[in-house]
Amino acid sequence: MRHAPRRYGLTLVVTLAGLVALSPSAQASVSPTMSLDQSAGTTAGGTANLGLDLKFSDSGTDSPHDLVINLPPGLLANAALDGGACLRTAQLSGSSCEVGSGTVTATPDVLGVINPPLPVSVPVTFYLVPPPTTGDLAGLAVVGLGEQLGATGDIRIRPTGDPDGVGVTLKLALPDQLPLALGPLGTVNLTQISLTEINSTFNSLRYPATCPAAPAGLTAAVDSYSDSTVHTVTAPLSVTRCSALTYSPAFSVIATRDSNDRQVQLRTTITQAPGQAPSRSVSLAFPTATLAPNIESIAALCRDLAAGSCQPVGAATATSPLYPTPLTGTAYLTGTSSGLMLTLVFPSPFPLTLNGAVDLIHNSATFTGLPDIPLTNLGVSLSGGADGLFLSTCQTPSGSATAMLTDQNGDKSATVPARFTVAGCTSTSSGAATIGGGSTGGGGQPAGAPTVTSSGVAGLRSGHPSLRFRITQSRHAAKLSGVTIELPVGLRFVAHPRAGIRLTGATLKSLRLSHGHLTITLRHPVRSLTITIGSAALTETAALKAKAETLTHLRLTVITTNTANKHSTIHVVTTSAAA
């Protein structure tokens, strides 16, 4: 703490008492009361000055010690003032970094000079300054009589999972003694002070985007030097006109297939204009024919994020109008094999963990409980490679993804499609979908290409899955010499599946299992065959088994090779029997 020049005398001593009261760390135990002044406005998502009057009972010799002020979720300060310059260099004059003002009242015991002691109120100004501690969002400096008084306070964002929700916490430490200059040539002694009031106004706070029936509260917790008991006081924050906030997010997708395998690098981006309502939930769904889940990515499953040794599967970025630089996080595949999650982890100063439930059947991820922080851009980039979460056969290189979003207040929703094409796919593949047990789908199948019929999956509910389908080649095309099978999501081949494979109408020459795909080579070319894959060759995920009772179909991919060395890819929506 800086000592005031002696020429200021008693007035500056009291000023120091008040201003240092707005230093780091926050809480106090001398019966606080608190009131808010919202006369400047209460509009959801808007900006308005907020008055905060904290009073502390005067116990004579005791004084508040630690003060913690928790702003409710969504009530945020603008840390992007002056383009972010306030977070790089302390500017303790002018208006560029000024975030508020007020008065502090304290009663000094001036060693008998004044008896009884009289309370003195001193004007103060608050400035946003660089973070004093690693992990802080920013610092709060208090200026009076032309200089900073006391240490810089902490401004932090509460992390995901905090019982008070994601929001701003101010931590302030309050002194009970200050140096008193008795005169230009006199001695300097410490005098006891008792802080009785901090009456402040904070400028241009961004209001929450939610209007709950029971207003959220702003809380202050204090203890005192003589009593460590913490007393908490709460004042309700009124928020109005949530329904007036606009909500029109945009969604885009960029997909690029790896050059040496079928995995896909995927980037999704959700954008909004400043001032719109933030999203509370986001669900992203992708067309399986264009982007299929890569079951092999289970190798990247992270079971304990806290261990610090998990393998990332991608990255995330977020841009907010209230912070000067984009935030960068890491994406992990978490949860269990029966309940996968895509988890986005952002470090301080925004310590957020966003969990998206992965639905392999519907090829989607759903994030709920997103914090009330305005974002103009939220991007997620998923890596390719062996453990990439998505793959593409390039049979259907173009498709339409869908984002389904709900705003923070829960009264607006948006469904936004995004058309995309997988870059890196060639145009030499051929094939079409076969629907519901084997009838040929409309369009896209070249003349002479094979068809898949009589397809079906059984035994999912019992945990003993089996798969059967028939392949037929046209009379005018070269005969079939081999088949590669890509199983539906939730099924995978065992390490040595030969005992569970049976061919009807053809003789097996060899089997090869690579990256979860089984290639069958025939001893003699044929025009048709039936392939049965029994439970001895298959395993089933717990997630698929749990949904087996309500499933009506699964997606299967069959790639055929003929004696002319031409390949045809056939996507099959095969019927499912739950027994």
Overview of the structural elements:
By secondary structure, this protein is mainly beta. It has two helices and 40 strands. The strands form five sheets. Strands 1, 2, 3, 4, 5, 6, 7, 8, 9, 10 and 11 form an eleven-stranded antiparallel beta sheet that branches. The radius of gyration is 33 Å and the shape is elongated.
Number of contiguous helices: 2
Indicate the overall shape: elongated
Ends apart, CA distance between termini = 75 Å
Low-confidence stretches: 1-28, 111-115, 427-447
Rg, alpha carbons:
33 Å
Biggest sheet record = 11 strands, antiparallel
Roughly what percent helix?
under 10%
Strand fraction equals: over 45%
Structural class: mainly beta
Report the average pLDDT across residues.
85
Q: How many strands in all?
A: 40
Keywords for this entry:
40 strands, single chain, eleven-stranded antiparallel beta sheet, disordered N terminus, mainly beta, 2 helices, 579 residues, eleven-stranded mixed barrel
SSE layout:
Elements: H1 9-20, E1 32-37, E2 47-56, E3 64-70, E4 98-108, E5 120-129, E6 138-144, E7 147-148, E8 153-157, E9 168-173, E10 177-181, E11 188-206, E12 217-224, E13 231-236, E14 250-257, E15 263-271, E16 279-285, E17 292-293, E18 301-302, E19 314-319, E20 327-336, E21 339-345, E22 353-359, E23 364-367, E24 377-382, E25 390-391, E26 398-407, E27 413-423, E28 433-435, E29 439-440, E30 451-458, E31 466-472, E32 480-486, E33 491-493, E34 501-504, E35 508-514, E36 517-526, E37 528-533, E38 538-540, H2 542-547, E39 553-562, E40 567-576
